[in-house]
Amino acid sequence: MPRKAFVNSSSHADVKAFFDPETWTFTYVVYAGKESSCVVIDSVLNYDSKSGRTSTRSADEVIGFIQSEQLQLVWILETHAHADHLTAAPYIQSQLGGKIVIGDHITNVQNVFKDVFNLDKQFAVDGSQFDHLLKDGESLSFGALSLKALYVPGHTPACMAYEVGDALFVGDTLFMPDVGTARCDFPGGSAQTLYDSIQKVLSYPDETKLYMCHDYPPTDRPVAYCTTVGEEKRSNIHVHTGISEKQFVQMRNKRDATLDMPNLILPSIQVNIRAGHLPEPEANGKSYLKIPLNAL
User: Side-chain half-sphere of 235: how many Cα atoms within 13 Å?
Assistant: First the structure.
């Protein structure tokens, strides 16, 4: 597979990571120094499943940083429709502006889950809840920087990675080398497809930085969010160099059969396929989420 050329490799990108310990999620602000333009990748809206209450604690930390650095938010990006946390994209947009963006295959996910949740006929499955749908290979600029979308399905049918300079923000496609790779047993997921997507990522130069969406440390090591293509090829426990597609698919399918559903999959998916917007309030002014029984 040919080695990739970097987009905008001459422009330096600063990366600020924020960790949400409740969902093991990293949110990133990518920018080019104080008073520059920026993007936010994979924000978190805090959600208490016991009470059904939301809060903006994690998002406010991101907003505070952007304001303190006098940054101009241009794009609010999702790598995919997350099943383990709710996005805070609309809240961040309401505070700072910017446009909410996801890969154009989100329409496939909306079609599947419209049926799972029996959503009303008015729920659009054309991605119109988002401000912009990115196609594979499409670029977006923000100030002196630009990003390029890389389609990496497998975990879900709509996953995107984002290339900025010498870095890739890979969503759930890969984890730190001692954690492995994403599960593929959600609707529309495929271990074979994920293997192909991972090979796209690993075709980049070894020094390429890879920024994770999550970390689940298997030992007492501190959480970590950045590795390299070379480190993944050498030591990823699921897909290091020498692991064949057949070996990977067998491992991934066997492992996925043992996994419980994520704690927040039912609230998360309902909100995230709406670009983070909560369902319309009912007659009493309250919004409600659905819990489909015996559906997953």
Answer: 7
